[in-house]
Design a protein that fits this description.
mainly alpha, 2 strands, globular, two-stranded parallel ribbon
């Protein structure tokens, strides 16, 4: 067994331990995103009719998407709470709390009575549960990426940082697949109990995630901070005071991977069914195919980050997304099954390139003592804007009399923001942490 050099007193991490941590991060984030994405799909297919009752279908959809956006608005609160705790008491403890929180809340959504049963309390409670989902997710991803990176050998951080990212398409596959299965039920059965089954499935999945999370060791870099008493006294405040440029640039680099994704999934499902008259199964199938391709892109993207650097990969993916935006929507507008699936898959694959390297890029922007807070806040500032993307795209669609031109331009703007921030990011990278790694 060989060792890589590191500072005196640094922890020793085996490659096997790094893989176990990365896998645990992946499973936890997959559950988190499964729970979180369920709400987005249900907003397009169920919540607009059963919880935000109105005679105007567009108004109902806007209300459902506004509730959907609440989860993103709450994510910075989760980043503040769990970022502070993660940099003070440890990454592992916070990740156990966040995965438990979202699993329980998602289960509660599955048993929540509809508007016809309890009136206005239904949309209020639904929105409250969405807020709690957002708080949990706000603390989850930053901690999972931080833990995976801090266990990883320096030369392999790209691939290990991509592991939590793979939880996103897997969560999409699980959530879209679950809704695709129950959508085959008769409409009356689907509305009364069928749509609840994917939410109720979150509870047994929570048990698996907790078992894996409890087996993961704490970050060696965090333990070193404890040993040397170098923890930040108020990490969130220090990030805002001393690292706000990194915070904004980090948020910009993460914007396309999250906001663009919700535009091409959540918005397109609503646009395809309500405006173009396509069947639900077609849009859900397109999302499933895109998610499978995204997994491959994320794996490859992690390797590319190690070879070319995460910033260059971010810029390339963002430019590619801008270039294919109009062709992708032209394919979707044909309503032909193969064209729709191709359009959704094409643009999802390209916007997933910056998402693949987001963890590697953000962790290089912040030192270890501020990392959980900095990474979580950057990602969730992007998340706030992203949560309003389906709402903004729907409003632009209405403004454009049902044409996809304005929503497409929105996707291009988001891509260019990520491209610009990717160009700036390398000037702000901190020196890489050194940890002894046995391989």
């Amino acid at each position: 067994m060989s060792e890589k050099s590191g500072p005196a007193g640094a922890a020793t991490v085996t490659d096997a331990e790094a893989r176990k941590v990365a896998f645990g991060a992946f499973v936890g984030t997959a559950l988190e995103w499964y729970d979180f994405f369920l709400y987005g799909t249900a907003s397009s297919l169920v919540f607009n009719r059963l919880y935000f009752a109105t005679d105007d279908a567009v108004v109902a959809t806007l209300a459902a998407f506004a509730s959907f956006a609440v989860g993103f608005a709450a994510r910075p609160l989760g980043a503040v709470i769990f970022g502070h705790l993660g940099d003070r008491i440890g990454r592992k403890k916070c990740l156990i709390i966040t995965v438990t929180m979202i699993g329980v809340v998602t289960t509660l959504i599955g048993v929540l009575p509809s508007y016809l049963s309890i009136g206005v309390a239904a949309p209020i409670l639904l929105t409250l549960f969405r807020l709690l989902q957002g708080v949990a997710v706000g603390g989850e991803w930053g901690g999972a990426v931080t833990l995976a990176v801090e266990h990883a050998p320096p030369e392999r951080r790209g691939r290990y940082a991509a592991m939590p990212q793979i939880g996103s398409p897997v969560g999409t596959l699980l959530s879209s697949g679950a809704f695709l299965a129950v959508s085959a039920l008769p409409s009356e059965s689907f509305d009364s109990w069928g749509w609840r089954l994917p939410f109720l499935a979150a509870f047994p999945l929570l048990g698996i995630a907790l078992w894996l999370r409890r087996r993961v060791e704490e970050s060696p870099l965090f333990e070193k901070l404890l040993e040397e008493d170098e923890r930040a006294s108020s990490p969130v405040r220090q990030v805002f005071a001393t690292a706000w440029p990194q915070l904004l640039v980090g948020a910009g680099t993460a914007l396309l991977g999250v906001g663009g994704f919700y535009l091409i999934t959540t918005f397109v499902i609503s646009y395809g069914t309500a405006t173009l008259g396509m069947p639900r199964w077609l849009l859900l199938t397109a999302t499933l195919v895109a998610a499978v391709v995204e997994i491959v892109v994320l794996i490859v993207g992690g390797r590319l980050a190690e070879r070319y650097g995460p910033a260059r990969v971010t810029v390339a993916g963002a430019l590619g997304s801008a270039l294919v935006a109009f062709p992708a929507f032209w394919l979707i507008d044909t309503t032909a099954a193969v064209a729709v699936i191709t359009g959704v898959t094409l643009v999802t694959a390209l916007l997933s390139v910056p998402y693949a390297v987001s963890g590697a890029l953000l962790t290089e922007l912040f030192p270890a003592r501020l990392r959980y807070s900095g990474v979580a806040l950057s990602a969730n500032i992007a998340g706030v804007a992203s949560g309003f993307v389906p709402l903004a795209a729907t409003a632009l669609l209405t403004l454009g009399d049902g044409s996809s031109v304005l929503p497409t331009l929105l996707l291009i703007v988001i891509s260019l923001v990520t491209c610009g921030c990717g160009l700036v990011a390398p000037r702000m990278f901190t020196s890489r942490d050194k940890v002894k790694t046995a391989v």
